[in-house]
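hey can u run this one w/ flavin-adenine dinucleotide bound, need the structure tokens asap thx
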Amino acid sequence: MSKIEPVVIKIAETKLDMAGVEQLMERYNATEWYTRVKPIQQNDTEFLIEVSGRMCYKSYGVGLNPNVTKIREDSRDYVTNVLAKGDGSILEHATVTFAFLNVSRVCSHEIVRHRAGTAISQESLRYVRPRDVSFWIPPDLQKVSSEFEEAVQVITNQYRELESKFDWDKMSFEEKKRVTSALRRILPDGMATNMVWTANHRTLRWVIEMRTDPSAEVEIRQVFGQVAEILIRDYPLLYGDFSKKALPDGTFQYTPKYSKV
Ligand SMILES: Cc1cc2nc3c(=O)[nH]c(=O)nc-3n(C[C@H](O)[C@H](O)[C@H](O)COP(=O)(O)OP(=O)(O)OC[C@H]3O[C@@H](n4cnc5c(N)ncnc54)[C@H](O)[C@@H]3O)c2cc1C
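ok here u go:
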């Protein structure tokens, strides 16, 4: 058994197509707004969200919509007002993609319960026959960690015993897949897996709030604690209302001022 830690890596995020944005601004007579704001707002995601939101009321400047007599000039004020009003749908325009490595199947099962605004690709135990059964030992089991490791070793040995009953070199890929899939039934839920998880910012704010709550399971709190740190660092306007509180087990709770936008 290998002991591992859950790891979160940001691998992709939304990027503007600047030629397209400039074309849009020209067509909207919003070039003055664009020329003023874009040099200050370098963050593609936050800029896209602001552009999308301002389209709703044509609020790139006073006079474009005769009903609008004043606009919020500052991007931070604009985004904060969006969050305060709960106009979260514009946050769906931009996404972030993470690799979650060494997370258990307990954790991945909880992650996939969040359906809205997500995309998921998880390592398959139908196709991938594990060479190693890796585990993260939860803090609550630290004092019985050697017994925990022994239990995992027993299961791993039994898995290897069953696996050895098949002549893998003579099997077709389809046969291997079928037997690998059948064998996974005895593998433990706590076994480490890897997944790629994409979510839009409306979803991200909600899942961080739910899954760093003290009532959530410790592993998913660790994972979404890492997610929160990355997002607070990289999207200061979108996550600037989150506050961080230390929990007794060493994890942190991240609570937004504006919940479920
Ligand atoms: C601490 C904790 C304990 C939990 N314990 C259990 C448990 O014991 N058993 C269990 O089965 N689950 C449990 N869950 C999972 C929970 O029930 C939800 O499935 C999970 O949190 C997904 O959240 P969500 O419903 O907000 O859905 P998401 O997919 O994250 O959706 C976000 C929001 O979009 C809206 N939405 C999404 N889909 C629809 C829809 N089809 N129709 C209408 N509105 C929609 C809702 O407003 C929803 O809140 C637990 C979750 C937590 C955080």
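The longest strand covers residues 95-104. anyway lmk if its weird
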